[in-house]
Specification:
The chain is an all-alpha fold. The chain is about 75% helix and about 0% strand.
C-alpha cells in the first residue's frame, strides 16, 4: 500500500522545487516581467483543472473575475513585454503548470490531508542544495545577502506556503486563486516604497482590476 504521507511530502517537494527551478532558468531566455506574466497563468490553470475534475464549483462570474485579475497582473508587471524565446516561454509556463498541479493535488486530498509542508520544504531545500553543487558555481554571500536569503526562506517561502496550503484545502479556492494575482501588485508597491519602482497609470489601473476581480469572485462564494 502506498504511504500517503510520503506521497504528499514528495508532491510538496516536487511542486515547489520544479516550479522555482523552471522559473529561474526561464530568466536566462526571457525578461523577468514576461516570465512573471506567464507563470501567473497558474491560477487560471488551477481553476480549469480543478473544475474539470469536479473539485471546484464554478460559475461564469468566477471566469470573468479570474480573467479580470489576470489582465490587472499583466498591466502591473509591465505593458511592454519582450517577445523573448520560446524556450523561456515554455520554462515559465512549466513553472506555473507544475505549481497548479501541486495545488490541485492538495485540493483533491481535502481538509484532512496529511501534514506534509514542513517535511516537503525540507526535502525541497536539500534537493536544491544538491542540484546547486552539481551544476552551479558556489559563491559565498555577504552577511546582508545571507540574512536576505534566510529571511526569504522563513517568511515568503515557509510561512507563506504553509498559510496558502491551509487556505487552499479549507477555504474558498476560487477567491484564493484570484487574490494570488495581488502578488505582483504588492511587490511593485514595496519596490515603490523603497524608491525602486515608480507608480504609473498602468499600475494603478492594474491594481483596480485585481481588486475588482477579487471582489467579483468573493460575491459568489460556494461551498467546496
Amino acid at each position: 500500500m502506498i504511504n500517503q504521507q510520503l506521497v504528499s511530502i514528495l508532491m510538496v517537494a516536487l511542486g515547489l522545487l520544479v516550479g522555482n527551478v523552471l522559473f529561474l532558468y526561464s530568466l536566462k531566455f526571457i525578461a523577468p516581467a514576461q516570465s512573471n506574466v506567464i507563470v501567473y497563468l497558474w491560477p487560471v490553470i488551477l481553476v480549469v483543472l480543478a473544475t474539470a475534475l469536479g473539485l471546484m464549483a464554478f460559475s461564469p462570474r468566477h471566469i470573468m473575475s479570474v480573467l479580470l485579475a489576470l489582465t490587472g497582473a499583466v498591466l502591473v508587471i509591465g505593458p511592454d513585454l519582450a517577445t523573448g524565446s520560446w524556450i523561456g516561454v515554455a520554462l515559465a509556463f512549466g513553472s506555473g503548470f507544475s505549481w497548479a498541479i501541486f495545488c490541485v493535488y492538495r485540493i483533491w486530498q481535502g481538509p484532512d490531508a496529511p501534514d506534509a509542508l514542513i517535511a516537503g520544504l525540507t526535502v525541497s531545500s536539500i534537493t536544491a542544495i544538491i542540484i546547486h553543487f552539481m551544476i552551479e558555481t558556489t559563491t559565498l554571500p555577504t552577511s546582508l545577502s545571507l540574512f536576505g536569503v534566510i529571511f526569504t526562506g522563513i517568511f515568503p517561502l515557509a510561512v507563506g506556503n504553509l498559510c496558502w496550503d491551509y487556505g487552499l484545502r479549507r477555504g474558498d479556492k476560487v477567491v484564493l486563486a484570484v487574490c494570488a494575482y495581488a502578488t505582483p501588485l504588492v511587490s511593485i508597491l514595496i519596490l515603490a516604497a523603497f524608491g525602486r519602482a515608480q507608480l504609473t497609470a498602468s499600475i494603478l489601473v492594474g491594481a483596480t482590476l485585481i481588486v475588482g476581480g477579487g471582489l467579483a469572485s468573493s460575491r459568489q462564494v460556494r461551498s467546496f
